[in-house]
Structure formats: C-alpha cells, structure tokens
Amino acid sequence: MSQLGIGKMAWRNLWRNPRRTLVTIGTMTVALTALVTFAGLMRGMQTALERNVVDLETGDVQIFEKGYEEKPSLYVRIADPDALLRKLDQAGYPATARLRASGLAAAGASSAGALLVGIDVARDRRVSRVWREVADGTWLDPADAKGVVIGRRLAKSLGLRPGGEILLLTNAADGSMANELYRVRGVLRSMGEVIDRGGVFMNAGTWRQLLVVPDGAHQIIVRRPAGVDLATARATVAKIAPDYDVKSWVQLLPTLANILETQRGSMVLIDLIVYAAVAIVLLNAMMMAVFERIRELGVLKAVGMKPGSVFALVAVEGLWQTAVAVTVGLALAAPLLYYLVHHGINISSLAGASVQGVAYNSEWHAEIDRSTFAGPITMLIFAVGIALAFPALKAARLQPVDAMHYR
Amino acid sequence: MLRGPALFVMAWRNLWRNRRRTIITLSSLAFGVMTAVTFTSITDQSLGDAIDLAARMSNGHVTVQERDYRDSPSLERSITADDALRARLAADGDVAKVVPRISGQLVVATATDSFGAGFVALDPTLDDERSFAPLGQIVEGKVFSDARGIVLGKTLAKNLGAAVGKKVVYTLTDKHGEIVSGLGRVSGILSTGSPTADAALCILPLDAVRALIGYGPDEATQLAVYLRDQRRAEATAHRLSAMLPPNAAALSWAEVNPDLAGFVTVKVIGSEVIEIFVVLLIAAGIFNTLFVSVMERLREFGILLAIGFSPGRLFRLVVWESLWLALVGLVVGVIVTAPLYHWMHVHGIDMTARVGTNRVEIAGALMPMVVRATIYTDHAIIIAVAIVAVTLLSGLYPAWRAARVQPVDAIKLGY
Amino acid sequence: MRIRSFALSLVLVPLLAAPLLAAAPGTPEFARALLQKVDDMYRGEQSHGVMEMEVKTRHWTRSMSLESWSKGKEYSLVRILEPKKDRGTATLKDRHDLFTYLNNTGRTVKISGAMMGGSWMGSHFTNDDLVHESRFSEDFDIKQLPDDKLDGVPVYRIEITPKPNRPIVWGKIEILVRISDQQPLKDTYFDEDKKPVRELALSDFKNIGGRNLPTVMTMRPLDGSGEYTKVTWKELSFDVKLDPSFFSVRNLTSR
C-alpha cells in the first residue's frame, strides 16, 4: 500500500466512527489545553509571588555606594546618580534613585523613629508600585512640596490621618538640626515592618532641602527588562556601575528568596506529577480506542494487509488525531492564555476581606514562553506514541482469525 | 418485574466483563488520586513550613500582647501573665508552648560608636531555636547563660567594634518613660543571612531587661504561643482571648503579620485553582471511559429494556458501575500513593540538583532543597470525596444516555 | 562620629577652684576624696552663662553661641543665640526628661530612647550624655598612679575604672590634675582593650564669675579624624537663684 494511501485510509477510518474519534480527539485537546494553561499559570504564580516583594520596595537589583549597606550614613552616597540612571535607561533597565536618612517624626505628644525617603516621583512609578498602595488619601505630587506619605503603623502611633500635620526632625548634612512641618497626603497599606513602623516618603527636592544634601543619592533601584533573568541582570548592572555595590534582591532578602526557591522546588515536582497524570489519562483514551478496533484490524489483515501496514495505519491514525488535537487545542488555548496573560485572575476578589489593608499583588498572570507549549506537546506525542504502540503491535501480529474473535 | 442478581452485583460484573478497559480506567483514577494527594500534600507542607518559619522568627503562631500594642508598640504597653495564667494557656489542647518575651527598640553603644537596634529579651531555658529561629543562627559564641549576656547581629557587632567577651551598654526608655541603661557582655554573634537583620537585632536576657525597665517578675510585652498545628491559629486565638485579662488580646499570626497572610492567601487560591484543574482533567478521562463503555453496550441495554428492565433501573445500573469504579479506583489510588507519600513525608525528595537559578547561601551554606509532604486529614477526605463525586458526575450523562435507549432501534441497528 | 561622655556635665557645670584637701596626696583616700569633691561640687551649683561651641567634623564645621542655665546635674536649659536662623532653639533637661524646642517650627519634642544616641546640638556629645548621670565615686574604682608631667606641668594621675556591672562603655578613664592648684587638665577615655579613644582637654584658665576656671574645653576623638568639639565660656555667673520650676517646658519656648 502506498504511503499516501495509508494516510488517506487512516483519515477515512477515523471518520467512520465519528463519535469515538471525536471523543478521543476531544480528550487529547482538553488535556493539551489544560496543560498549556496550567504551565502558563504555574510559571506566572512563581513570578506573582516574587513580584509581591520585588515590585514594592526592593526591585530586582540595587546599587549602593560601597559600605553603605552595612553602615548606612547620610554621607555615604553615590556621587553622580544621574549618570548611572542615564546608562541604565540606555540599556533598557528602568531605574530610579532614592535618598535615605533616619530621623524623628512627631505629632502632638507622640514621636517615633522615622526613615525619611526622598524619591523622584515620576521615575519611581516605573520601578516600584508603592504609589498604588495608598490606603487612605493620595500619593505624592511633585507640585506639593510639603506633602508626605507615611507608613501605616507610624500613622497609628502618631494618631495621624491624611490632612494631619507631621514634624520631621533630623541631623542635616551641615550639622544643623533640621526640622520642618509637613502635611500627610496619604497613609500606606501594610508593606513590611520598616515602612509600616517609620516610613515617610517625600519628594526628592523636599528631602534635599530638609537634609541639606544637594547632590548624590543613597540607593538606585533597578528593574530588569522582560526576558532577562535575574543573574544576568545583576551582572549587566554591575558592569554599568563597576565601582559600586550591586546586589540582587536575592542577596538582599535571602530568607525570602529561600522560601520562594522552596516553593519553586515543589512546583517542579508538581509539574512532573501532573504531566504523568495527564499522560495516563491520554494513554487510557488511546489504548481503549485502538483495542476496540482489534476486530476490524484483524479483518484488514485477513484481506491481505501486511502487519507493517497495519501498524503504520494505526500509527498514522494516531498522528492525525494528535495533529487535529494540537491544532484545536492551541486554537482554544490561545485566547484563554491571552486573557490570562494580559488580564490575569484577580485573587483578591477570590480572597475576600481577609487581606484588605495589605499591599500585595492581587493579579495572577500566566506567563508563556516556548517551553509552555513545547512541554505539553512533547508529552502528548510521547503519550500517544506509547498508547498506540502496544495495541498496534498486538494488532499487527495477531492472526486474523483470533483478531476477529477478539473481545 | 425482573428478578435476578442485585443491581450492584450486576454492575460489578459488568465492569469486569471488559477487564482491560476497567483496569485502564482504574489506573486513570489511581493516578488522579496520586496527583491530587501529592500536589495537596506538597502545598500543605510548604505553606505550613512558611508559616512555622514566620512564627519562629516572630512571636509564635498566636501572640498575646496588650490590646493596642500592635498599633502603638511601646514598653509601656505590657501584659502581666502569672504562672497560673501561663499554665492555663499552655493547657489548651492545641498549644505546644508558651513563652514570655519583651521586645522593643534600644540604642547599643561601645566606646567606638552607638547604633539603634531592635531587641528581643527572652529566657534561653524556655526558648530555643525551635521557638526563636535566630537562636539557631549564632555563629560565634553562644546564647547567654546569665543576666549579663547579650547576643548581637554580625553587622551590628562589626559596626560597634564589639566581639565575644566585650562589653556594650544598651539604653532604652523604661516602663515609665524614663531612660535607663544596662551593661551586657557579648556572649554570641548571630548571622541570619539578611544584612538588615544582622545590623539591627540583639537578644537580651529576659530577667535583666525586666529589672532594668521596671517590669514585675511576670510582666512582658508578648507571650509567644506555639501550636502543634498552625492551621488552628485563628481558632486558638479566639479561645485564648477568653482567658485573658481585659487589657490583653490574643492575635493569630495572620493578624500580626499581614504580609505573610497575603502571601499565603495567594498561594492557597492558586493551589485551589490548580486542584480544580486536576479534578476536571480526571473527570474528562473518566467521562471518556464511561461514555465509550455505554455506547458500546447500547444493543445489550436495548435487550435489557426489551425484557422488562426499567429505564430508571438502567440508569441506576450505570451509576452503580461508575460508583464501583470510583470506590475501587480510590482504594487502588490510595494503595499506589501510600508508599510515595510515605517516602515524601519521612524523607522528602531532594530537588537541589534540578532547581538552579536563585540559590541562596545562609551562613555560608547552601540550603538543601528538600521537598516534603504532609497532608491534613480534612484535605485527604476532601480529595476522596471529590474523586468519588467527580466519577459519579461524569457517569451521569452516559447513564442518562443509556436509559434513553430505544430498545427496537438499539437491537435492530445492532450497536 | 558620636561620642558618649559622662563628662558633658563638666562642660555645662564649670568646675570650681578646689581648696586644698585634707587627705595627703599619695594616700588611697586622696584620689577618692578628690573625685568625691568633684561629685559634690555639682550638687546645688547654679549657674548662668554664655558659651561658644565650635564643632568640626569630617563633613562640616559649625560655630554656635549658646546661653545656658543649670542647677546641679539635674536641671539645665540651653538656648541657641547664634546662628540667627537657629536662634531660640533650646534643650531642656528636667531631671530624667529631655525636651527640645525647635524655633523653626515652634514645636517641642520630648526626646525618647530612640533619639538618645543622637548628637546634642550637632556636637560630639549625645543627648544621652545630658541625661546619663554617673557619680564618679559610686560608679568607679579609683586608683592613683605615679605623678607625671603634662607639657612640663606636674600633674597627679588618677585612673578610674568602672565598677563591674555599671553601664559604662569605657574600659578606664585617666584624669590628669594639676598639682599646684588641683585643677583637672585632661581626661583620657580608654576602651576595654586599653586603647585611648578620646580626650577632654581643659585649658585657658581665667578668672570668671569670681572664680578661677578653665574657660575652654575641647573634646577630641583620638581616631586621627581631626574632629573635635570646643566649648569656650564667654560669660559666667554663679550669683543666680534658680528655682527648679524655672526649668520647665513653658520656659523652653519663651522668647
């Protein structure tokens, strides 16, 4: 029998029993679509967990003047942050510079230690999502020089709400005791102890004026562009800023990185298990489909079809079904994935009120790349192959008479 | 009325008439069980671990503190827990351990320099590294054995020019708002791996701090309560609240650490979505099997109906078949899963080789990436019920289809 | 760099000329008696004066003119006169409480534990120094070392070591006292490893307020940084009657 003949015959065979074929293809399609979506979501989950940390305060990579991290000091600064920012911009790495000092915040009769953070409002927006986490009031405005945004617990301990007056006191860079009154524009959601307890965000210009620090910056926070992994990003930034301390968030927050890595380890294991489970489901579907037809395959042998051709026939039928399943499966998966990648699943609406007041990323987006599809498709072909091999071999070797009596 | 074997016996026999298909289906179910159990147990374990770790790094699964302490932490907001109260709290069925602690801010100084830091004052005979993780991260020296000791974070010690055996003076505001100082001799240096923690953490003896700040012998800022099962934190917090004096409150870890609560919620929701996935997948496979099996036997069903089997009975017959599949599949699934689960529960699987990118060194050693599993009883029951339910549901359409067979058509057309 | 020093009291409450002591030099009682007298001198001493403080750090140099009132070690009020932009800012010590009034914003802040490590008025003295009270005789073991010379001037050498369990960061302090009139000339502070960390030098003895006093006190860290804080008394009077009620938050903000 010619090859083309087998191809056409296989195709016609499939449609002689449309119900069975459709159910089989259907199972394969569902399996494929499910796996592809699963792969995308799992990958996205890991990123969502990471993002929660990275988006907020830490960024992917940070740059400090040498020695600052161990012993923060007003005077240990990156001398020319603008030059670094320009180079980072050119390399496609969103970045922003921040100024930091510790001081005292006071209102009424209460006072508390504060961390004064001066930021470039426009640039900061591209790097951190703090601006979205204002629970009460509004975020900073470059036009409002006296407006500050404070941490949740600081607001509580000082009894402050948006509109309230806050005194900030600190040792300025010229040795004087800087003190100024500011207005609270907003209060942040809970986002980690340091900010909650004493964080005060203000415009960089306001900060510089209060602390008498006209140039330099303490910290540059950098985000990596899409598609660049963390280690590569860190190395690239280190090349751009060779005289400074360059650290990735993993180095800055090792405990958290550890927790997330453990999660990743379990994800990998889960992947393996889910793939195995799906493979078994497919195996079942395919094997049943072929075993049911042993009789008819036996008839084919009886009318002279060679064992090799019988085997080939079954194989090609499997191939056809796989092809259709892959096509339909991907066609179905595409819009679903598109939605999940761009829109995502909103977790907070599922979570309810229990996490209100906490700043975390509530959108779970799927993430796709080549492996999202490669994995499931490979597994599908592999499973189908195994599923067909056994019964196909059996059919090819059966004596026609036995086949026709096969039950 | 047709007499003969009971429906469930008939269903059982039907299944085994096509042995191969039934075995294939059962293996499908078994794998479904395995997937569900493995996934759930791994997730349960990893979340439980994260929560336990957080409890060990802060003040327990449930924290007892003054009512307003969380919003306005201060040494002036203390609680008094005498032996009787502590005993009563510890006697609660879920509670494993209750330890008093004092925490706050201070300034620590040497002849060289002075820095602000946070402190935790505890009793090392009551607390150990299982209740306070930093106690297990002391890399030089050891925890103090008398009232004059102090343990400093690595970076803090370096900045102060302090070392084991050297003295430091710590200053804080006492219970009455007055400023007091104490002397400590460094007994140990700790390295948490986090540069910020290493620069801002010190551990002090509970009694020394009590005496210094004017606390009574039973006074503290927190009672850290550790539970055997972290899932019972909220319920336990409610129960314990009832035992406390009016100025104190018992908070679960989620209330004290809303960040972690957010993280856990994200993971839990994510896992639930995935589990629904898995269940749907299993349902698809089961449906396929049952459907094909029904469709093949339309002729036989036609005959049964023709000789007096009611459609209702036929329906129930097929439902029984799916129920048998479900039960046997579940049993086989449990048998197949048990050794894997046991291995993962007791030994865990070392994923170190496979997970490469963000490796973390803590105190100079790479943490091994061992994935363990523990399943909560109620989760196991939910899985079992879900498997059975899904199988039954998948069988409903085929059963209904069977019942709708027109005997004459079925027999004549010879399906 | 911040320096902690119990000797801030020395700055705020100037020393009196010491009449000769009963005990003979060289006997164990002598050193103790000397320091006891210094301790006792501050009790009940009231003063009002104007000083200039010059602070030089690695990053900046500043001069200020300060008006100060004090009563013993327990009460003090220090107000900035110059520079003009800081005029009116003041620090009040009322027994164990410390307050700062900020002229810029018109607000008064109570200094709590967290700010204790912070520097007082930008100098090498910390807020804690103002609050912290050590009595020489109670908190230290006193030993007299062999006499020596400081720039050719014969001096007694007294070494004081903190008693065990006293919250004092120093390993020891060496005090040089001029033999001729028993005026302290220099205190050197050592860490636990007996390395000298800084010194307080007293100089420019003049007749002021009816007494012979060192009018210049210089606190210098010995880390080679070149930093120092120098206080010079311009005016000083002990003929004042100050009531404890004078040292109040209300008074802090007046004028």
Molecular structure report:
The complex is a heterotrimer of chains A (about 400), B (about 425) and C (about 260). Chain A has about 400 residues and is an alpha+beta fold. Chain A has two domains: about 5-55 and about 255-405, no CATH class; about 60-250, no CATH class. Chain A has 15 helices and twelve strands. Chain A has a six-stranded mixed beta barrel with strand order 2-3-8-5-7-6, surrounded by four helices. Chain A has a two-stranded antiparallel sheet with strand order 11-12. In chain A, helix 10 packs parallel to helix 14 (about 370-395). Chain A is elongated and about 105 Å long. Chain B has a six-stranded mixed β-barrel. In chain B, strands 2-10 form a two-stranded antiparallel ribbon. In chain B, strands 13-16 form a two-stranded antiparallel sheet. Chain B is about 50% helix and about 20% strand. Mean pLDDT of chain B is about 85; it is low at about 360-365. Chain B contains 13 helices and 16 strands. Chain B has about 425 residues and is an alpha+beta fold. Chain C has five helices and 13 strands. Chain C has a 13-stranded antiparallel beta sheet with strand order 6-5-4-3-2-1-13-12-11-10-9-8-7. Chains A and B meet through helix 2, helix 5, helix 10 and helix 13 of A and helix 2, helix 4, helix 5, helix 9 and strand 14 of B.
Condensed summary:
With 407 residues, chain A is an alpha+beta fold. Chain A has helices spanning 3-16, 18-58, 81-91, 121-127, 152-158, 193-198, 204-211, 230-240, 249-252, 254-291, 294-302, 307-342, 347-351, 370-397, 400-404; strands at residues 61-64, 95-107, 110-119, 134-137, 147-150, 165-171, 177-188, 199-203, 219-222, 245-248, 345-346, 363-364.
The profile of the biggest β sheet of chain C is:
13 strands, antiparallel
Task: Give the low-confidence spans of chain A.
Answer: none
Low-pLDDT runs of chain C:
1-20
**Strand neighbour order, sheet with most strands of chain A:** 2-3-8-5-7-6
Helix-strand sequence of chain A: HHEHEEHEEHEEHEHEHEHHHHEHEHH
Alpha plus pi helix count of chain C: 5
Number of helices of chain A: 15
Question: What's the arrangement of secondary structure elements?
Answer:
The complex is a heterotrimer of chains A (407), B (415) and C (255).
Chain A: H1 3-16, H2 18-58, E1 61-64, H3 81-91, E2 95-107, E3 110-119, H4 121-127, E4 134-137, E5 147-150, H5 152-158, E6 165-171, E7 177-188, H6 193-198, E8 199-203, H7 204-211, E9 219-222, H8 230-240, E10 245-248, H9 249-252, H10 254-291, H11 294-302, H12 307-342, E11 345-346, H13 347-351, E12 363-364, H14 370-397, H15 400-404
Parallel strand pairs in A: 3-8, 5-7
Antiparallel strand pairs in A: 1-9, 1-10, 2-3, 2-6, 2-9, 4-7, 5-8, 6-7, 11-12
Chain B: H1 7-17, H2 19-57, E1 62-66, E2 79-80, H3 83-91, E3 95-109, E4 114-122, E5 138-141, E6 149-153, H4 154-160, E7 167-173, E8 179-190, H5 195-200, E9 201-205, H6 206-213, E10 219-220, E11 222-227, H7 233-243, E12 248-252, H8 253-256, H9 258-296, H10 298-306, H11 311-346, E13 349-350, E14 361-362, E15 365-366, E16 370-371, H12 377-403, H13 407-413
Parallel strand pairs in B: 4-9, 6-8
Antiparallel strand pairs in B: 1-11, 1-12, 2-10, 3-4, 3-7, 3-11, 5-8, 6-9, 7-8, 13-16, 14-15
Helix pairs in contact in B: 1-11, 2-9, 2-11, 2-12, 9-12, 10-13, 11-12
Chain C: H1 8-12, H2 28-42, E1 46-56, E2 61-71, E3 75-82, E4 90-94, E5 97-102, E6 107-110, H3 127-131, H4 136-139, E7 140-150, E8 153-162, E9 172-178, E10 184-190, E11 196-208, E12 211-221, E13 228-237, H5 249-253
Antiparallel strand pairs in C: 1-2, 1-13, 2-3, 3-4, 4-5, 5-6, 7-8, 8-9, 9-10, 10-11, 11-12, 12-13
